[in-house]
Amino acid sequence: MSTAANSRVYTAGLVVIGDEILSGRTHDKNIAQVATWLQVQGIRLDEVRVVADVEERIVEAVNSLRERNDYLFTTGGIGPTHDDITVDAVASALGVSVIVHPDARAILERYYADKGGINDARLRMARVPDGAELIPNRMSGAPGIRLGNIFLMAGVPHITAGMLDALTGTLEGGAPLLSETIGCWVAESEVADLLRETEKAHDGCQIGSYPFFREGKVGANFVIRSTDAAAITSCVDTLCEGLGARGRDFTPGGI
Amino acid sequence: MSTAANSRVYTAGLVVIGDEILSGRTHDKNIAQVATWLQVQGIRLDEVRVVADVEERIVEAVNSLRERNDYLFTTGGIGPTHDDITVDAVASALGVSVIVHPDARAILERYYADKGGINDARLRMARVPDGAELIPNRMSGAPGIRLGNIFLMAGVPHITAGMLDALTGTLEGGAPLLSETIGCWVAESEVADLLRETEKAHDGCQIGSYPFFREGKVGANFVIRSTDAAAITSCVDTLCEGLGARGRDFTPGGI
């Protein structure tokens, strides 16, 4: 990949589909999982929307996020039951028809050969927006779906993990966002000016401040992010000097 | 509350604000927490958006979700540091100015009296959109903020929990969405037609199917939701009869 390509920022949107997340029944694990995986690919997660199993809501979220990002991921709603409508919604968003993918059908026929055989519900999982390719699923047969820069993944986190694994290294990304963490037993409100000034003095660096309460004391982790390793080092040095000048011990790597 | 009011569906939107969620560094716990709490208030969580610490992105999400819902909640970005910009963004979305709330200032002065006293960063946490009231925070002084049907909560989940607790019972909601769960050691793809037909035959009931893999076997929990307890009972009966007719044992309450 050329340096020019590396300096471009690639972004992705994520649509999490499922009433079970909005009802609080299921605690989503896919946001963190997709976010972490994207970082390693050099792609920044720009926005997440969690929407119900309602076609027009999925269509709206998909269209809105795919227009403004390089990549779009969805999780959930690609199973065999009546509430699994992601394929139909994405096809509708793209204005393409839904077809049965012959390879997906073959995969499912093999997978269910000793599990009662294929039926209408299972065949639903071979339906894809016209023009799509499959993303392998080594866990449970039913594949993920790729259509250009759109990726439809499972709702069950460990199945999504396998699909992401299959995609690792295949997406064009920029320089990965690097980060370094400095932990400090200090109330963030005591060093807010130091954080702001340090960030301002280091172009392309971003400092996040994440307070915590532990062992009866307040502390914070400061996360310095940039695509430029040298810039991070310089920013970390300035921050640590500043903390030291205020009589504060700090812990590289975070607390 | 009158029966007429109860039959109306109340909805809420949630905007989760924070680079740390989008980077995967922090696993969000507020979506599930707010969703569960809303259910008990008789309010349905309609959509969640996770956006970065960038004013125009917060403004866009806030305006979009507040227009289509009865209530809007935000989590994150109300602390003392430079990346805490929720108050400014919400004020901008509403077209009001930001003021220092005298009660918030008094609370913070008391809270920090024996912790080094008030300073500019800490005073940031007394800033509110003009017209706002405070939501008590028994954990760490800095209050949450209520402006009509908009609620700005902390990013740290246990602080948000306390703020939600302070709001419990104060928001007008409809009849709470009830649910009953039936677990079954069956591949959901074997009973997809039963689920679809049962849902269709019971107006106002919704059946979610949540598959799992445990002890080397596939199973699923079927969650029947409705605001009408009698409708749920009838729907559950039909579903259990159907599972029984297919020679399947089922577990009321779920597996």
3D structure, described in words:
2 copies of one chain form a homodimer. The first copy, chain A, is an alpha/beta fold and 255 residues long. The first copy, chain A, has 2 domains: 3-167, Molybdenum Cofactor Biosythetic Enzyme, Chain A (3-Layer(aba) Sandwich), CATH 3.40.980.10; 178-252, ACT domain (Alpha-Beta Plaits). In chain A, 38% of the residues lie in helices and 26% in strands. Chain A has 10 helices and 12 strands. Chain A has helices at residues 3-7, 19-22, 30-41, 55-68, 86-94, 102-112, 120-124, 157-167, 192-201, 229-245; strands spanning 10-17, 43-51, 71-75, 98-100, 127-129, 133-135, 144-147, 150-153, 178-184, 206-214, 217-226, 251-252. A 6-stranded mixed beta sheet of chain A has the order 2-1-3-8-7-6, with helices on both faces. The first copy, chain A, has a 4-stranded antiparallel beta sheet with strand order 10-11-9-12. A two-stranded antiparallel sheet of chain A has the order 4-5. In chain A, helix 3 (30-41) packs parallel to helix 8, helix 4 (55-68) crosses helix 5 and helix 9 runs antiparallel to helix 10 (229-245). The longest helix of chain A has 17 residues, at 229-245. The relative contact order of chain A is 0.12. Chains A and B meet through helix 2, helix 3, strand 2, helix 7 and helix 9 of A and helix 2, helix 3, strand 2, helix 7 and helix 9 of B.
List the secondary-structure elements of chain A in sequence, H or E.
Answer: HEHHEHEHEHHEEEEHEHEEHE
CATH topology of the largest domain in chain A: Molybdenum Cofactor Biosythetic Enzyme, Chain A
Spatial strand sequence of the major β-sheet of chain A: 2-1-3-8-7-6
Question: What's the β-strand tally of chain A?
Answer: 12
- Number of helical elements of chain A: 10
| Secondary structure: helix percent of chain A | 25-40%
Radius of gyration of chain A: 22 Å
**Residues in β-strands, percent of chain A:** 25-35%
CATH class of the largest domain in chain A: Alpha Beta
